[in-house]
Design a protein that fits this description.
5-stranded antiparallel sheet, about 70 residues, mainly beta, 5 strands, globular
């Protein structure tokens, strides 16, 4: 998963930033899709600094997705 530029052609998600949690050398971001679904992504050695509510476009390869069942 990576924060994407406008040049990506597929597997693009438009999200809003909800929060970031810094876990050593990893940053875990919680993002929201337009329908309210939350995504949690982790990035190594990222220096991301997104404001709450900021729009973020991400690109993801299908093999990198892990879907968790609702509990």
């Amino acid at each position: 998963l990576r924060v994407s530029g406008a040049n990506e052609s597929r597997n693009i998600l438009s999200t809003k930033h909800l929060e970031s949690m810094y876990l050593g050398d990893t940053v875990q971001h919680t993002l929201a899709l337009p329908d309210g679904t939350h995504l949690r992504i982790a990035r190594m050695n990222a220096s991301d600094n997104h404001a709450k509510g900021a729009p973020i476009t991400v690109a993801v390869a299908p093999e990198d997705v892990v879907v968790l069942a609702d509990e």
